[in-house]
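Entry:
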Amino acid sequence: MADIVWMDEDGNELKREKKGRGRPPKGSVKKDNGDFHILPGSTEIRFVPKYITIDSSGDVIEEADKGRGRPKPGFEKMDAGDHKGHWVKKEADQA
């Protein structure tokens, strides 16, 4: 099976992992041996929104990737602050 190899500006290998099913990362170059090389600047880092549950003091209780589709009930998308772009739910204290 092919590998996905991240390269630096000098052509040195930074990281290597097995390629799973599906398409290779955008901007990767397929080599003769079947590996996919990713050069610096060829791919942008994707923002992945998360579901974040926080308590009344603002500490994170739970965190999970959102995925596709409609958001879960009770979560609100944050427009500013530390959790900008994520879906946040504020839990009441369970005292």
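The chain has a mean pLDDT of 85.
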